[in-house]
Amino acid sequence: MRYARDEARAWVRQTLRGYVTALYTPYTDGEIDIAKLRTNVERTLALPGVGGISVNTLHQEFWTFTPEERMRLVDTVLDTVAGRAPVVVGCTDPSARVAAAYARHAEASGADLVMVWPPYYGPRTPPGVRAFYEEVAAAVDIGMIVYSTTLSELSYYLAPDQVADLLHIPNVCAVQNTTLNLAQYAEMLRTVGSQISVATSLEEYFYFGRTVFPGVAADFMIGSSRPIFCQSAEKPHCGDFYAATMAGDLAEASEHLRRIMAIAADLQSRYFAQGFHHVALFKALAGLLGMETGGVRPPLAPPSREALMGCLEVLVAEGLVDRSTQPPRWALA
């Protein structure tokens, strides 16, 4: 590991930059295709603005994997990245002992950080969630990012005061805040932003944080999927947005932000507003833009043809794909 346990917070602030972007899991005949996974890693790292990879996120369908698959996927990604960029490994599980086992594996395999959600099933209380995080963090030295969201698919909001209650744990080094509420995001920055990094996956919140909380807001975004389907090499909206924001060119950053938000409105944001990630649709869009996909596993199902073709029209109109582009066959099943 590149830092000591009590150095994790400083390491995150000094090291993470750009988008720490989600991956998509390719299947062949329902099984994870390791060769195609390596291809997706390379294609993701090559995207404009990408500065790292986030593994075993919602986008990657981690909850449909066996424990062996989760660990093999982590090993494959780390071997493919080979130290070229930071890798954050999701270790989420309702059981603290299982989450700790995943975190120990990630640490031993060479991950840079781990991400752990609050337990996503069963009765949960603030004291119980605190004890959950304490148990997982005690099992490893690697830095741990905690997750705060108001999306109903998790059904537990790790509020700013609860995150503050975790700061006695030295390797709790950041929080991913995905609340879709600027007031709540601002409160997280006010409450813990001077002590740990407060990151978001969305450009509009990143822009807000950088302008309203300069010197406090993080220099990176995490868990982002927009770099995959809101830009291309020829139209690097996300990469240009990040560069302009970090350079303090707010006029240029605003122009790119408006373009990204307009594209994402139909592709993604309307589902976030309903409280969930439309993972199957997002994966199909990634396939339209060059990622290997190969379907989804139950309980996911292919998106509706209407939703997918509507998104394809948006991508064509934005010049991100051409009219001849065909959706992945599995997505039209």
Question: What does this 3D model show about the protein?
Answer:
The protein is of the alpha/beta class and 333 residues long. The longest helix is centred in the last third of the chain and has 23 residues, at 250-272. The chain has helices spanning 8-15, 34-45, 67-81, 96-109, 126-138, 160-164, 182-192, 203-212, 226-229, 237-246, 250-272, 279-288, 305-317, and strands at 18-22, 27-28, 31-32, 50-55, 87-90, 113-116, 143-149, 172-178, 197-199, 220-224. The protein is globular, with a radius of gyration of 19 Å. β8 (172-178), α7 and β9 form a beta-alpha-beta unit.
Following the backbone from N to C, one meets helices and strands in this order, namely HEEEHEHEHEHEHEHEHEHHHHH
Distance between the termini: 44 Å
Low-pLDDT runs: none
Major beta sheet, strand line-up: 9-8-7-6-5-4-1-10
User: What percentage of residues falls in helices of 4 or more residues?
Assistant: 40-55%
The fraction of residues assigned to DSSP E strands is: 5-15%
